[in-house]
Amino acid sequence: MMNIKRVISTIEKNYIAENLKKGERVDGRGLWEYRKVNISHDVIASAEGSAQVDLGETKIITGIKYDVGEPFSDLPDEGVCTIMAELLPLASPLFERGPPDEQSIELARVVDRGIRHADCVQTKKLCIKENEAVYIIFVDMFVLNYAGNLIDAGGISALTALISSRIPEGEWKDGTLEWTGKYLNGKDIIKELPLVLTYGKIGDSIFLDPNLPEELVSDGSISISVTKDKIVSIQKSGSATFSIDEIKELTERSMELGKEIREKLDLWQYVVDK
Amino acid sequence: MENDDLESEELDEFESEETDREIVVPGEVLTEDVEHFNPGRGTILNKERTKIIALNIGLKQIKKNYINVIPLRGFYTPRPGDKVIALVIDKNPVKYKLDINAKDTAILKPKNAVRRGKIKALRGGAPGSRRMEAEEFDIGDILVAKIISADRLNMPELTLVGKYLGKKEDGIVISIDPPKIPRIIGRNGSMIKLLKNLTKCNIFVTQNGRIWIKGENIEYERLLIDAINKIETEAHTVGLTDRMSQYIENEKQKRGIK
Amino acid sequence: MPLIINDVYPEKLFREDGKRLDGRENNELRPIKMEVGVLSNADGSAYLEWGNNKIYAAVYGPREVHPHHLAKPDRGILRVFYRMATFSVFERKRPAPGRREKEISMIITDCIEPVLFLELYPGTAFEVFIEVMDADGGTRCASTTVAALALADAGVPMRSLVSSVAVGKIDGQLITDLSGIEDKAGEADLPCAITWFNDELSLLQFDGDMSLDELNESLSNARKALEKIHQIQSDALKRKYTSILEEVKEGDD
After folding, report:
1. Which end of chain B is least crowded, N or C, by CB within 10 Å?
2. Which residues of B touch A12 (CB under 8 A)?
C-alpha cells in the first residue's frame, strides 16, 4: 500500500473497511488467518537462547541472557523472568530513537502477562539457593521490521527463545556460587506453551493478525493469550469497544485457533540439547 | 486516464537496446576510454579525469557517446511539471501541507485548489469576470496534483488546475520505487495499456512512485497489485511486457477470475 | 554476583599447528555473508554475517532532521547510530546507548561522509541505523561495511563504497581480522576503512604496541583484505538483481 506516514489516507481506510465488511482482506487472507510464519531458533551465538520470528514482513529477534541475583523478598525461592521490548528505529519510519515508548512497553507487558499467568516459566526451578541466589532471565525482544501485529510475533519469539535456551547450571557450595558443569535447557525452564492471538477491529469487523495498513486503520484491537485449556490473559487496546458476545466468541475462537497453531508450530522441536 | 506528460526518453530506458543488462554499483569503473565517452546520467569523472565512474546501483547504458547509469533504486526528487499523488497531512487557512513521498512536504494554496468546472460569476465584478471556487480538503484526502515549483529554498508547490487533477474519492494508492515508474508505463504506454486491459482496472501512475488503482472488484485489484509488484522486481529484465501478459493470464486461471 | 561461567581469555592465541584458535591462517578473513534489501520499511537495508558477528543496517533518508536545530541550511547531514543489542555480548549489555556506542557512531559517520554528496540535500538528513545483534570482534569494521551497503541499496548516490577491516598483532604475530578473543587478548588492534573513490583511509584507529615496520606491514595486509571485502559487497548488491535475471532466463528456456 502507500508508504507509511503518520496520516493514513481516507480512501485506504474506506477500502480496507468496506472490504472487511464483505469478509475480504487486501492480501487475500481469511478473517481468521495468520500471515506466513517463519521461525529460526538459536540464531545468536552470544545469547543463552534466541529466536527470530517473521510474521508476514514483521520481524522480531528475541535473545535470552541470564544473571544471578538475590530474589525478591516476597518470593524467596523463585527466580525472575523479565521481558523487555525495543522498537528499533530500523523497523519503521514511525519509530524514533530513545527510551521505550508506550507501544514498546505495551508489547513487553502483553507478552509478559501471557507467559506469566500461564505458569509457563518455572520460576521455582530457577532458584539456586533460597534467599541467596536465583536466576534472573532477561527476555529481550528487538523489533527489526514493523509490519503490523508485533504482539503475536513477539509472543512466539519470546516463547521459542526460552524453549531454545541453554543456561549454565549453578549450585550453592559453602556460600559461593559454582558451576555444576551442566546446563539447564528449555525442558527444565518451560512447562506450558501460551500463545497470544491479536484481533483488530474496524467498525463492526473483527479479524485476526492485522497487517500494517489494517493496524494503522483499526479503531482498536484485543489480544487474548491461551494455553491448551485456559484463557490466561486479555488486553483490549485502542478506542474500539467489544460487546460481551464478541468477547465470548473471540475467546472461544482463540482456544481453537490456539490449539491449531500450537500444533502447527510444534515449538518443542526448538529445544537444544544440554 | 492517460499519463502523457512523462518524457518519452525516460520511458525507453529500461527496454531500450542501448541498455546493457550489466548491473553496476557505486564506484564501479564504467570505462577508462575518456577520449571517446562522456559521463552521462548517474555517472561522474574521477578527479584525475581518467575514468568514468557509476554513482548508483543501476543498469549500464551507452547512448551515442554518453555512458549512463539507469538507477534501479532511488528516492523521488520533485520537479516542476511532475504529476504526483499527494496526501493531505495538515491544513491551515492559508495553505494545505501534503506528503508527496519526497524529502520536503509540499504545499497547496487555496487559489490553486479550484474545483473543476465550477465557475462562479463575481457579484459586482466586471461583465464576464469569473472566479473559480476553491474546493475544501481534509487531512487524509488523496489528491492528484501537479508541481508548479520546486527549488532549494522553498517547499514544493502544487496545483490542482489541470486535466485529470483533483481529489480521489475512492480506489487505493500503492507505492513502488520511483525509478521503476517508467517500467509500469512502458514504451509508448505499452505496459500500462496491457495492465488496464487485462485487469480491467483504472490506473493512474505518477512520478513520485505512487499508483492509484480502482477495479471492478477486489480480485482484479489484488491481481493488479501483484502484477505491479512483479514489474517492480523484474524491471531490469528484458521481455517483461510479454511475460506480464502471460503472468496475468496464468494468475486469472489459477485464481478463477475471468 | 558473578555469572556462573566467566569469560575467560586463553593463554595462547595460536594452536599447536600454527593456526589461529579458529583454524585460520594469519591473513585469512572469517567467513563473510552479505545480503541487501532485507527490511521492507527502510529506504535501504543490508544484513551481514562476519564470523559470529550478525549486524543489520537500515537507511532512512533524505528526511527531516529531528531535532530541527541540527539541520544545516546549505547541505544535508549524515547521522549514523551504532547500537548493540542487549544479548549480543557475553554479559548482557544495558539497553541505553553507552559512550563506546556513541564514539563508534561518530567514527562511522566521519568515515562514510566523504563518499556522499550531502550538498545536494540541504536541510535534510540521511540516517543510518546499525544494530549489532551478535558481536564477536571487529564490530565497528563490520558495521561500516554493512552501512555502506545499505546506503547503496537505498539508491543514495555515492562516489564509491566504503570497506573496513581490523588488522593487528597477537602473540607477536601480525594478523588480519581479529575475532573477539583476539581483540581482547591480543597486543594491537588497528581498525581501518578505505573509501574506494580516492583510495584513501577514512577510518583509522590504533590501540596497542607495534614497531613502524609492523605498522606498515599491517596496513599492506589491510589493503589486501579490504579488496576482498569490497568484492563481497559488490557481489551482494548485484546478486539481488542478477539472480532475477537468471531466473527469468531459465523460465524462458
Report:
1. C
2. 172-173
Q: For chain A, which residues make up each domain, given as ranges?
A: 10-270
Q: pLDDT tens across B207-248, in order?
A: 999 999 999 999 999 999 999 999 999 999 988 999 999 999
Coil, helix or strand at residue A216: helix
Q: Which three cell numbers stand for residue A104?
A: 514498546
DSSP A141-194: EEEEE-SS-HHHHHHHHHHHHHHT-EEEEEEEETTEEEEEEEEEEHHHHB----
In CATH, the number for domain B8-71 is 2.40.50.100
- The CATH number of the domain where C111 resides is what? 3.30.230.70
Least confident residue range of B97-101, B184-188, C6-10, C136-140: C6-10
Please indicate if any CB of chain B lies within 8 Å of the CB of C114: no
Alpha helices in chain C (DSSP H): 99-112, 139-153, 180-185, 212-252
Query: Are C89 and A46 a contacting pair at CB < 8 A?
Result: yes
Q: Cell numbers of B110, please?
A: 487555496
Which chain C residues touch B21 with a CB distance below 8 Å? 245
Interface contact flag, A15 B142, Cβ < 8 Å: no
Q: Tell me the three cell numbers of residue B68.
A: 549512463
A97/C81 CB distance under 8 A: yes
pTM over 0.80: yes
Q: Do B27 and C61 touch (CB under 8 A)?
A: no
Q: Do B57 and C248 touch (CB under 8 A)?
A: no
Buried b / exposed e along B61-72 (16+ C-beta atoms within 10 A): beeeeebbbbbb
What is the number of domains present in chain C?
1
